[in-house]
Design goal:
Length: about 450
């Protein structure tokens, strides 16, 4: 009898959805389910793993050392037969995907060497610069070297904005907007002041509990991205005005390598109404109108700012004519654009970034992919058609915080896990009787859209 071990001890929401999916998909097929009790108080290193055919759990608990897929099989000590290695719910090495700096480098290399076959646009991500800084004084040298292109743009008065963010920080920490060398210098001076105040930790926490500043000497590595102009904005049913949003897409990567997009995408809205940064008239920019990261919002705010994208059909959209509403055609264009963008990103990371992404054939993983939709040629006098929309990649996250979806959407997360087990573990793609046997990229089957299907040799250390 085959068995699956399920364990997310530090994420009860995720653990419950994983157990629900295993019970619905694997148990009826005769599988035994081993699970931990996430209510128990224990450390990760104390968790004992049973022998299992599938390990579906926290990255830090998976037995990577025991299941290296050099041959794809291992000897069965009882009968001497070759049996498949156990499956793991994470890839061991995937920095090319989940680190902002590695991802940007992989996308750049892929563009320079050869355009991926699935290319949707010349670029799928905003222009990006990566650099290291330990103090504000480093900025002068950087602007003359690594950030020379940024300096030229800022000095040319092109009215272009940029986003600064730490390479590895999360929850919106350290994110800032700037459109001049002076404003960039002011940001680093702010971060340096944070470093100076670090010694007085208790006072610092009390006075800056809501601050998103970072300690520059601890962060060191930063990313600058061009700010995406003309974002698609939506007046959601729970919001009074047009708000900026980003899409949280859940993506299953399987083996080496197929990539799937879960069709039920989330729209995560900024808590305040959107305003073009150009309209601030030298006033301090309110990041609440631009940051769509729900980690900076409380539970009450999240109820208003987290929606299923499909539930927003019929909502007013902009910029452009206010009579435009989000239609099923818009939603389908976003799905197809998202699938193409995700495919290009994963293809770039498996080729140009191969050293830092090794897709084992006996591994699979669910990623949280953040996307942004823009209307490049928006006009205040014209409505927005599906063909006007462009989907951009912002970042890819490992072990996403599914709990941010909220209790009302847990059924959707359950369904994501169910389809992941069906595809990755049982090999059930879900083809219809009348459909082509081979799953075509861009087509959807039972809530999953195939993004990419390319053969890769197994990775390893």
């Amino acid at each position: 009898m085959r068995s699956v071990w399920v364990g997310f001890p530090t994420a009860p929401y995720t653990h419950q959805s994983a157990v629900n999916a295993a019970e619905k998909v694997l148990e009826p097929a005769g599988w035994t389910i081993h699970r931990i009790d996430p209510t128990q108080d224990f450390r990760l290193e104390e968790v004992k793993l049973p022998k299992a055919d599938v390990y579906f759990g926290d990255y830090d608990l998976l037995p990577f050392e025991d299941v290296h897929p050099k041959s794809g099989t291992q000897s069965d000590t009882s009968g001497g037969e070759a049996v498949p290695y156990p499956q793991l719910s994470s890839y061991v090495i995937r920095k090319s995907l989940i680190r902002k700096n590695y991802l940007a480098h992989s996308l750049h290399l892929a563009k320079v060497k050869n355009q991926p076959s699935t290319s949707q646009n010349d670029d799928i991500a905003p222009a990006t610069w990566i650099f290291e800084a330990t103090c504000a004084e480093d900025l002068d040298e950087l602007l003359a070297d690594d950030l020379y292109d940024v300096k030229e743009i800022l000095e040319s008065d092109q009215n272009r904005w940029f986003i600064l963010k730490p390479a590895m920080a999360d929850q919106g920490m350290g994110i800032r907007l700037f459109n001049s060398i002076e404003s960039l210098e002011a940001i680093f001076e702010e971060f340096e002041e944070e470093s100076d105040e670090e010694e007085d930790e208790e006072t610092n926490v009390a006075q800056n509990s809501s601050s998103t500043a970072v300690v520059i000497s601890q962060v060191r590595q930063f990313v600058i991205q061009e700010y995406l102009q003309n974002p698609l904005v939506i007046q959601a049913p729970t919001l009074e005005n047009y708000h900026k949003f980003h899409i949280r897409a859940y993506v299953l990567a399987q083996g080496s390598l197929r990539v799937f997009l879960y069709d039920e995408m989330l729209a995560l809205f900024a808590p305040k109404a959107y305003s073009d940064p150009e309209q601030n008239d030298d006033e301090e920019i309110d990041l609440s109108a631009h940051l769509t990261n729900t980690s900076r919002q409380d539970d009450e705010q999240s109820l208003k700012t987290v929606h299923l994208l499909s539930d927003l059909e019929g909502s007013k959209i902009g910029p452009g004519a206010t009579s435009t509403v989000l239609t099923s055609e818009h939603l389908n264009a976003i799905r197809l654009g998202s699938a193409a963008t995700i495919a290009e990103a994963f293809e770039a990371c498996t080729k140009a970034g191969r050293i830092h992404f090794q897709p084992w054939p006996n591994a699979w993983e669910i990623f949280g992919v953040d996307l942004m939709v823009t209307v490049p040629n928006a006009s205040p006098t014209q409505s927005i058609s599906p063909n006007d929309l462009r989907v951009w990649l912002l970042e890819i996250n490992a072990q996403p915080d599914f709990a941010k979806s909220g209790p009302k959407l847990q059924e959707k997360i359950d369904r994501l896990f169910e389809r992941s087990l069906e595809i990755a573990v049982l090999g059930q793609d879900g083809e219809d009787e009348n459909a082509e046997k081979k799953w075509q990229a861009g087509s959807s089957r039972k809530d999953m859209t195939l993004c990419l299907d390319i053969p890769m040799s197994s990775g390893g250390w």
